[in-house]
Every structure is written in C-alpha cells, then in structure tokens.
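Hello again, I could really use a second opinion on something today. I've dropped the whole record in just underneath, so have a look.
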Amino acid sequence: MDSQPPAPPMVNAAPTPRRGLTRTMFGIVAVVIVLVLLLVTGLSLLKSSRGQPPTVDNYPNARIVNKRADPNSDHVLYSTMDQIETVADFYVRRLGSSLESGCKRIYYDEPPSQEVGRSFYRCVVDTSLLEMQQTAQITISYKKDAGLTFIDITRSWGSGR
C-alpha cells in the first residue's frame, strides 16, 4: 500500500480576497448602524430639550400682577416702577436686538413719537426645532395712568406648532 502521510495543517493561511471583502462589509455596516444610533439619540435629546419652557430672566424687583399656566404654555404679567428704557435695556443686554430675534422698539404713532407711553418693546426668543416649539415673547409697555412699566411674558413649548 502506497499510503502517503497526511498533509500538515496550514498555519497562518492568508485570508482569501473574498473573506477580506466580507469582513470589510461587516465593518462598514457596523459603523453605519452606530452612526444611525448616535443620530437618533442626538435628535431625541434635542427634541426632549424643547419639551420644557424656555428660560427667560425675570426683571429684578418686578412684582407679579397676574399669572396663568397651561400644560404647554404660561403667561406672567409683572409691573415695576422703573422706566421703560431701563427695563428694555435689561432684556436687550440678554437677548440682543437682531432682525430675527431679540428686542425691538415699536411705536404707536407714525411718525414715531418719543413721548413716554407712545411706544413699547417686543422681545422674541424662538429656539424651536423639529416640530417642537419653544418660544417666549416679552412685551414691555408703560402705562401713564398707573405710572408703571409692565412686563408681559408669554412662553410656549412642546409639540404642535
């Protein structure tokens, strides 16, 4: 009997090109899955951060006149004896005065009158994102008859723009 001894097992055999391609494809699929999971997690965190009221600084020493709260909005009316320009400066320093958001002076008359009580300030903050609303509107006005400056803050948040 001519029997040949068995061939020794191959050690450290080089991977075939097909095996290398399969590993590369699995690696790419794994990276894509991880990226998709990170994207979904990031979007969920962004949306959940819009499910609460936007932060608005309260004017120092202003007193609450009226307050109302709903599930996705609230409204507070404050009053102060400070001048309207002083209150407006407080909010302009915090929110700015750009065309898109921030605070703007609005006049009741045309041409604009510098007389006290003939204008008001409107400040807008909008950090809404992906159908999740998060806005604040601040109206600052002076009422001559009361001799007070009023700060009207309305905030809304959550889904349902």
Summary: The chain has a mean pLDDT of 83. The two ends are 89 Å apart (CA to CA).
